Amino acid sequence: MSYASSSGGSFLPTTGIRVMRFSLNDNSGAFLDGQSVRLAFTLKNEGAAPISPITLSCGSLFKRYRLTGGGVEITDIGPEYGRYHEMRCMLKSPGEKLSDLAEGWGGTAAATITAPHNADPIPPGGERRMMCQFYCQFLGGQNTQKVLLSALSGLVLEAELGDAADCFAEAEVNYTIIRPTILATILQCDSAIMSSFSSHLLSGKSLSYNCPLSAFVMKSVVTSSSYSLPIARGFSRISTVLFSFFTGGENSKEVTTFNHPLAGAAPSSANDKLRYHLALGSFRTPVFDVEGVAEQYHRLRTAATVLDHGSKSIDISPHAYRSNKGIFAINLEKVIQEMDTDIGNSGVSSRGGSQMTLQLSGCPQNADGTPVMLHVCVLYDSITQLSAAGVIQME
Predict the structure, then answer these.
(1) Which residues pair with 228 in a beta bridge?
(2) With contact defined as beta carbons under 8 Å apart, do 272 and 292 qualify?
(3) Separation CA 232–CA 357 (nearest Å)
(4) Alpha helix segments (H runs only) across the chain
(5) Domain that holds residue 70
(6) Average pLDDT over all residues of the chain
(7) CATH code of the domain covering residue 215
(8) How far is 283 from 291, CA to CA, in rounded Å?
(9) Residues 188 and 259 placed together within one structural domain of the fold
(10) Does one domain contain both 173 and 260?
(11) Structure confidence at residue 62 (pLDDT)
(12) Is 259 exposed, middle or buried (0-12, 13-18, 19+ CB in 10 A)?
């Protein structure tokens, strides 16, 4: 099934229309396979020089992703969706990265399962058709599948383009997105099944979807080497908190650069100073601060197991991790459901009146005084409830 954009057919990151809007509904009584949803579009290089993609997926072109159902907001990740998308791609297995490259930018002859960062440049005036899958807890992901009654949910998907040069090696980029289309699989069912669903909903009952890995992103300026960041928004069940740094610098792109305080140096007791923990009222995790690159990597592997139950490894080399691929994580799940990834709600609640705070020491600082940005991502479990009256989002 194909869904055309209702907000136009041509989009530019600099001027004009930047938001693509798609209505994922039909009246055929079919079911939408959320896992199959892809955005397909043609990117045309309007500049006089080739442009070289540097992200793992073309999904990082977008700075905000939003999904509504019946006018109720289900997902709103932004304005840092591009960095969040890149982070999630970094935590995938090598094979999945290569598959994303084939669906997206396209790879050169050097692109292999061990070197997926070799995207094909786009020549001046050239056009390339590509696809991407957004990270959305309601539609499902690579390991979770949700089948939705499309006529009932009234789904509207919105994607807003980020800055032009975010995903490219060049400092000046000019491109146009044309003919964007949502591609998805529609499942046709027997009319008796549809009658059963209609009777269920019209009787005042509802359909509830558990949505693990719902995401909330935020960023802040690190004002000193010791820093405390309050996370004021409350959640019923938090599964994981991830954070990363961006120190800036020449030719650095915020979407793709995850600076580690070691800046590539070999770790030692003299230079490996980053410490962190999460506090929620009297609750503190871990009890002793996370200390050293080894524990940082271990904590990230534990959190990545929640993100991808089928993989226990991270495709980030030790040197890359302590250079510009540093992602830090604290897992809050009490039980990791390896057999059924749709089961959740075993995390920590921050709705008991206490504020959650991320406590850091040994943060990176720029010698010239330019600000260091701290990016935080909170992953939590939410429930989306569909009924004849509309959509209810509970988080």
Answers:
(1) 359
(2) yes
(3) 8
(4) 81-90, 94-103, 150-153, 191-202, 292-307, 318-321
(5) 2-203
(6) 89
(7) 2.60.120.730
(8) 19
(9) no
(10) no
(11) 97
(12) buried
Residue 391: inside a domain? no
How many angstroms separate the Cα of 68 from the Cα of each of 155, 156, 235, 273?
Answer: 6, 5, 19, 43
73 exposed, middle or buried (CB, 10 Å; 0-12, 13-18, 19+)?
exposed
- Position 281 scores a pLDDT of 86
Q: How many residues does the chain have?
A: 395
Distance CA 244, CA 57 (A): 19
What's the pLDDT at 340? Answer: 53
Rg of the chain over Cα atoms, rounded to whole angstroms, equals 22
Residue 151 pLDDT: 58
**Boundary of a domain, candidates 186, 203, 220:** 203
Question: 31: closest CA among 143, 114, 123, 147?
Answer: 147
Beta bridge partners of 38: 183
For the stretch 310-348, pLDDT in tens is: 666 788 999 999 999 999 999 988 765 555 555 555 778
Same domain, 262 and 303: yes
Strand locations in the chain, DSSP E? 2-4, 10-11, 19-23, 31-45, 62-69, 72-77, 127-132, 147-149, 155-161, 175-187, 206-222, 227-231, 238-246, 275-280, 283-291, 328-331, 356-361, 372-387, 390-394
pLDDT on residue 177? 97
pLDDT on residue 196: 83
Query: Half-sphere exposure of residue 100, counting CA atoms within 13 Å on the CB side?
Result: 27
Residues forming beta bridges with residue 215, ordered by sequence position: 379
* Confidence at residue 190, expressed as pLDDT on a 0 to 100 scale: 77
Flag residues of the chain having pLDDT under 70: 27-29, 141-145, 149-153, 308-312, 335-345
- For the chain, how many structural domains are there in total? 2
Using DSSP bridges, classify how beta strands 390-394 and 147-149 pair: parallel, antiparallel or unpaired: unpaired
